Amino acid sequence: MTRQTATLFALAAGAALITASPAHAHGLAAGGALGGFMHPLGGLDHLVMLMSVGTAASFISAQLLLWALVGAATGAGLGLTGFNLPGAELLAPLAISAVAALTLAAGRLRWSNSPRLLTNISGGVVGLGVAIHGMLHGLEAPHDGNTLLWWAGVLASSVLVCGGSTLLLKRLPLSLTRAAAIGFLALGGLLALGSLVVLNGAAAA
Question: What is the dihedral of CA 43, 38, 132, 130, to 10 degrees?
Fold first, then answer.
């Protein structure tokens, strides 16, 4: 294990312990463009999902960013209608691990001889994972005169993090991309464990 990977594991463990608290459960978000911009950045699971997608896009194909956009729009639309997937609070961090695992496996999969097939399968995983997070955004979105500004802010910060992660990792050694994916894989699992503890605690209360 490299020093970078060990550092990412340590950060993942610390972040998961911090966020494994009912105080970090999703709730109604603040309105306005600034509130929307900060919303994906203020929740560790949302932020890491965006970074994980950017990592996958840098390694597999930039087309995954389009799949993520479609997934986000679909999930947000469902959330705005009040639809809530059972276990979404647990599925959201698991989606991070799924995208990270996909990134790590992409170079070893036999589909790699068919880039289009690999991109489509990866796109489906990314789109579904982002849709879960988008649905939570839709459930949390404010319903007032600033709703459109809020969503514009969410889109701006999401594009900034996803696109920025993609561009940055394309310029860095491939070993750092793999290290980041390993870190996100671990972090997603730890956040899922934290969510499970919170959900079990709420059910027992």
Answer: -110
CB atoms closer than 10 angstroms to residue 165:
21
The C-alpha atoms of residue 46 and residue 96 are separated, in whole angstroms, by 9
* Nearest in space to 156 (alpha carbons), one of 76, 8, 39, 64: 39
Domains of the chain, by residue range, sit at 29-204
> pTM for the complete prediction?
0.84
Q: Which residue matches tokens 């959900």?
A: 199
67 vs 9, more confident: 67
pLDDT, position 27: 57
C-alpha distances in angstroms, 26 versus 3, 43, 53, 126, 198?
33, 8, 21, 21, 12
What is the dihedral sign for C-alpha 126, 127, 129, 134? positive
Separation between Cα atoms, residue 117 and residue 111, nearest integer Å? 7
Model pLDDT for residues 146-189, shown as the tens digit of each residue: 889 999 999 999 999 999 999 999 999 999 999 999 999 999 99
Q: Which residues, 6+ apart, have CB-to-CB distance to 49 below 8 Å?
A: 92, 95, 96, 99, 129, 130, 133
Give the CA count within 13 Å in the CB-facing half-sphere of 172: 15
